[in-house]
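To the structural biology subgroup,

Please find below the input and predicted structure for Helix-turn-helix domain-containing protein, which we are adding to the shared reference set this quarter. The sequence is reproduced verbatim from the submission form. If anyone notices a discrepancy with their own records, reply to this email rather than editing the shared folder directly, so we keep one authoritative version.
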Amino acid sequence: MYLSTADQESINPVDRDLQVANVISRITAAELDQLDERVGAIVEHLVTEIESFATDQPILDQLNAGATHNFSITMAILRHDIEIEQVGPSEPAIELARLMAEQDIPITDLEHAYRLYQETVVRWCLQGLSVRSRNAAVTAQAALEISALVSAHMNLIAQQLLTTYESARDAWRLRRTATRSARIKDVLAGRAIDLAPTEEILGYHFDQYHLGIIMWTDDTEGTPSAIAHFEAAASTFTDRLGINGHPLLEARDAHMARAWIPLGRRNGLDHTRLDAMRGSWTGPVVVTVGNARHGLDGFVRTHAEADSARAVLQASEASGFGVVCAKELGAVTLLCSDLSSTRAWVAETLGPLASDSAALAQLRSTLREFFRTGCSYAATAESLHMHKNSVVYRIRKIEEQLGRSVREHRLDLENALELAFWLGSAVLRQA
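Predicted structure (tokenized):
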């Protein structure tokens, strides 16, 4: 028989506390009588809701063991047999966090699992409360106590496991990075490797076309980590080129990383996408790009090409580079290894044009474009947005300074102009 409102309000607070404790004790006893069924339902619910849990047997094993332990401890906490502060994560829960970290399963999935557990257990307890308490005040107090204790238990465990997860993830990433770096070093050095295990460790296949890229920056302030910084840049680069697949990336330090983008059966790039990306590329990360190369040898060659392009840009004192392809640099990558000799050769080849001044830079730019357009005055004028007569005047002025036709020793002039364009003051005389 239900008590009247007046009778309910007249219950002594001490008696009400005893009644709350009694009803919660009966609820937890009933729940523990169904332990196996409850654990099975919890695990099934988690696997259904969280995709990353569904296909990994070691994770399923830890879920079952962890759910059994957690459910028993939660019931003990509700009965006040144990204080929340005395509770720590179980061994299965710690192992689950470690497994998730090592498989790159996001921490949000772990947090989601504990929220689902909390909601499920509270719902079962409240259902039990609804048939075991006829006193509204007792029911309300018991409901609040159940919700608060289960929530506090889950918050404490989740926070402790977050630390476990982050430590395990950091340790695993360091081990994985060291192992992957050693394998990449072996491949680039031309050492004999066992192909299948190497591909498994790297998560990357060699029997395809590769695009090697080098990324670097002088600005790493405000970035979460060097790896994350370069991973984001490599992903953006890959996405803008319309390429499916994940790059193989190795951060060399906080300022530089190298990566290989899988091209599959494609032996080239979409140049429309490439040009659009280069025109809009912003941010502190500079990227040099090798040529598409196939197979294990191609993996090595495309990296070497990107690295040679990097050496050119870093030898230059110019700034503002975004994305530069090795193909653009041509012979420049071969001529800048000895800057002292290169500087002397540029001075000899360009003569008076080898001084680092704005006026001579304008003449060099005109002659460079003149060669690139096949020595067409009209095409050069169109490219530089000039009048054709202005181009004729500049070429004549260049020839006067050189003392010969620009068509004489054209190849040397072209190479010297490219060196001056890419390396600037590094190979030019001070004006």
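Summary notes: The longest strand covers residues 256-264. The chain has 18 helices and eight strands.

Regards,
Lab coordination
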